[in-house]
Design brief:
This protein is an alpha+beta fold. The protein folds into two domains: 116 residues, Jelly Rolls (Sandwich), CATH 2.60.120.10; 38 residues, no CATH class. The protein contains four helices and six strands, in the order H-E-E-E-E-E-E-H-H-H. A three-stranded antiparallel β-sheet has the order 1-2-5, with no helix packed on it. A three-stranded antiparallel β-sheet has the order 4-3-6. Helix 3 packs across helix 4. The relative contact order is 0.13.
């Protein structure tokens, strides 16, 4: 009996190294001259210390816009050193009264529970993947957040733009949002939509 149990255990250890690219190579700095693939960019031939450092988050983003906020990414396209590591980062600047609009990845929960918290300097908060979330600066000075992602090219769907910055007919948007025609047309106008 012990021999039969040992065979599946040994086979699982043989397959384990293939479950993660991180186990087959230490790093793979992206070659941005090639196309991105589901497994990431191909590895760059010559690598130097500069490939592992990124200074793009040092400067504040331009918050002179409709939402009074700016996101400065450090995704694989800006920081090729994160390729294959399953991570990336960004800087979020929000002026007083500014917002990070409601956004989400894939949604797997439908409980409609709201989790709200005021954050202060040095605080950290996690947004589970797929959870609708927003940011609002209710303070008296500009706010800065450093954001970490669990992928080199994270996706994001900003709900306001998805609903109003398109050519979906206003009559349909009215039905799915419970807003009246004037409100829908105003939002489409502000966000660049038509229809």
């Amino acid at each position: 009996m012990a021999k039969i149990v040992m065979l599946p255990v040994l086979l699982s250890f043989l397959l384990l190294p293939f479950s993660s690219m991180a186990l087959t190579q230490d790093f793979c700095v992206a070659d941005l001259t090639c196309s991105d693939t589901p497994a990431g960019y191909p590895c760059k031939a010559g690598v130097g210390a500069g490939d592992f450092a990124y200074h793009g988050l040092a400067a504040a983003g331009n918050t002179s816009n409709l939402i009074k906020a700016a996101v400065t990414p450090a995704f694989v396209g800006q920081f090729p050193g994160v390729n294959g590591l399953g991570i990336s980062a960004a800087r979020l600047d929000i002026a007083v009264g500014g917002v990070g609009p409601v956004a989400a990845g894939f949604i797997s929960s439908s409980s409609n529970t709201v989790y709200t918290r005021t954050l202060y300097a040095g605080d950290i908060m996690v947004f589970p993947q797929g959870l609708l979330h927003y940011q609002y600066n209710a303070g008296q000075s500009a706010a800065v957040a450093l954001v970490a992602f669990s992928g080199p090219n994270p996706g994001l769907q900003i709900t306001d733009y998805a609903l109003f910055a398109n050519n979906l007919p206003s009559a349909i948007v009215e039905k799915v949002t419970f807003l009246d025609d004037a409100q829908v047309k105003k939002l489409k106008s502000v966000l660049g939509g038509s229809g």
